[in-house]
Amino acid sequence: MLIGRFGATQLAAHQISMGIASVTFMVPLAISQAVNVRVGYYTGQGSPRAARRAGIAAFALGVGFMAAMATMLLSIPAVIAGFYITGADPARGEVIALAVRLLTVAAFFQVFDGAQTIAAGALRGLKDTRIPAVAASIGYWGIGFPTAWFFGVHLGHGALGIWWGLAASLAAVAILLSIRFWSLSGRLIPEISQEKIAATA
Q1: At 180, is the secondary structure helix, strand, or coil?
Q2: Contact assessment for residue 91 and residue 11, using Cβ atoms and an 8 Å cutoff
Q3: What does the alpha-carbon distance between residue 102 and residue 96 come to, in Å, rounded to a whole number?
Q4: How far apart are the C-alpha atoms of 31 and 154, rounded to whole Å?
Q5: What is the pLDDT along the chain (201 residues), one digit of tens a residue?
Q6: Rounded distance, CA 110 to CA 170, Å?
Q7: Do the beta carbons of residue 139 and residue 108 sit within 8 Å?
Q8: Is the pTM of this model over 0.85?
Q9: Hey, how many other C-beta atoms are within 10 angstroms of the C-beta on 34?
């Protein structure tokens, strides 16, 4: 809604860049669903160490993939954006130029985007949803939206400023959820170990 106020060119560049970022996001999203099942399985089995390893493996896969995508977006942004708009369009050059700048921001937040969705999936496997919801609200609305408004509207950077707000929100959520998974999964190891000792005593 904020980008819509900046005109058709900026909205078009935003749509192109968001479409590209959404495509790369599909892989960590799938990994997030898988780690949700694996972490839940091992937690239910009473194997918290295996649950934590499953989460770490998912992070490695997802973040590694997104790092590769970030490298690609930095290397050939104009080529990728060019697939989305016909060469006959008189506004093509301006739209592609802005899309390249937005994809540079997208390259910055690719790793964070992958990390936050995988962390959310791993936490669902630990039956932890309330605190991640609070963390997401803080990241997106408490940090991301004000940052987007400040840079995009107040300072007049338009779509580029909005995207820096998006990057800030994804970074914040990724950090909060990753810390939460590391802390909670580590805390479960001694708890479940004590339960096993009590059950065999």
Answers
A1: helix
A2: no
A3: 10
A4: 38
A5: 888 889 999 999 999 999 999 999 999 999 999 999 999 999 999 999 999 999 999 999 999 999 999 999 999 999 999 998 877 778 888 999 999 999 999 999 999 999 999 999 999 999 999 999 999 999 999 999 999 999 999 999 999 999 999 999 999 999 999 999 999 999 988 765 555 544 544
A6: 9
A7: no
A8: yes
A9: 17
